[in-house]
Write a structure and sequence with these properties.
Layout: H1 2-5, H2 21-27, H3 33-36, H4 71-104, H5 132-135, H6 138-171, H7 176-207, H8 210-232, H9 242-251, H10 253-286, H11 291-303, H12 306-327
């Protein structure tokens, strides 16, 4: 009945709100309220993950201390630069020497000489440039190649003629003159025929030169005569022609047989030379060459020659000096 004993008109008793048990438990707890509260509780056994903050891409500027190079380092750098320049100059000088050597081995066409085809280790270098497919027009290549084959065939025949004369000299000492002259004909005719009638006809077909054509006709006519003389085989002329072959066949059949073979080769050279001479003359008439053009080419070649110009200037200077001395 205590509730009824209280005076309803009495002053209400002021109660302390902090005496509430829930409030006092929180205020007297040793755990911080903020740390205890977790607004994102872990669910299903998964812990919360926090993303670390990205580092700043900007770094503070740091000034490096400036150091002056020592005199020794400066001298070493200058010496290394000089050595590098010297090596570069030596390399360029070697390149210039190599180019000069290449130019010396080239012909007037600016291309490296390729004839005769000698090994690179051989002390003698090629003297001429020859390329039928590049230098000679297609309509003249066949005849030009046949002239080249005729020259090679002539050289082989001269060598066999030397062997035949040697065999005749071994069996009969009276053939010593023939053997000596056969050596001379091989040494003389092989290079001279190349320079005097093959190269002119090659140049004539290459450049359509009237002067080269006329020079070829003049020399090759004598070459045909020489082929005929060699095929005849006059005794003591150094040729194993028909006369020497039949004469030797009476004394030694083996030597006579060798000489007959050489006689046949000389006869073939003569026949082929006549045929090729006619073919070259026919092609020469198609080119429109003439004696007047040959004269013009000869005069232009002579007056533009450095040898002729130097000789003319020397003669003029000597004549002027003589005239001056005579007046004094």
């Amino acid at each position: 009945m205590s509730g009824y004993d209280s005076n309803p008109f009495a002053e209400p008793v002021a109660e302390n709100p902090f005496n509430d048990p829930s409030v006092t438990q929180v205020t007297h707890s040793s755990v911080e309220p903020v740390d205890q509260y977790n607004p994102f509780p872990a669910s299903d056994g998964l812990a919360t993950q926090t993303t670390p903050a990205a580092p700043s891409p900007f770094q503070p500027a740091v000034l490096q201390p400036s150091t002056e190079p020592s005199p020794q380092a400066t001298a070493a750098a200058a010496q290394a630069n000089l050595l590098r320049q010297q090596e570069e100059l030596e390399r360029k000088a070697a390149q210039l020497d190599r180019r000069e050597q290449e130019l010396q081995t080239r012909g007037s066409t600016g291309k490296a000489n390729n004839w005769p085809p000698l090994p690179k280790s051989f002390p003698i270098k090629p003297c001429f440039y020859q390329d039928f497919s590049e230098d000679i027009p297609p309509e003249y290549q066949r005849v030009c190649k046949m002239m080249y084959y005729l020259w090679m065939f002539n050289c082989v025949t001269l060598f066999l003629n030397l062997l035949a004369c040697l065999a005749a000299f071994i069996t009969d000492s009276s053939h010593g003159v023939d053997f000596g002259l056969s050596i001379l004909w091989l040494i003389l005719f092989a290079p001279c025929s190349f320079l005097c009638w093959y190269r002119p006809v090659y140049k004539a077909f290459k450049t359509d030169s009237s002067f080269s054509f006329f020079f070829f006709f003049f020399v090759f006519f004598f070459q045909v005569v020489i082929f005929i003389i060699q095929a005849v085989g006059i005794p003591s002329w150094g040729n194993s022609g028909w006369i020497n072959a039949f004469t030797s066949f009476r004394f030694n059949k083996a030597v006579g047989a060798i000489m007959i073979i050489v006689s046949i080769l000389f006869t073939m050279c003569a026949v082929l030379a006549v045929v090729l001479l006619k073919m070259v003359h026919k092609m020469y008439r198609r080119t429109g060459a003439s004696f007047q053009k040959a004269q013009q080419e000869f005069s232009q070649g002579v007056f533009t020659s450095k040898t002729f110009q130097s000789a003319a200037s020397g003669a003029a200077s000597s004549a002027a000096q003589g005239t001056f001395q005579g007046n004094n």
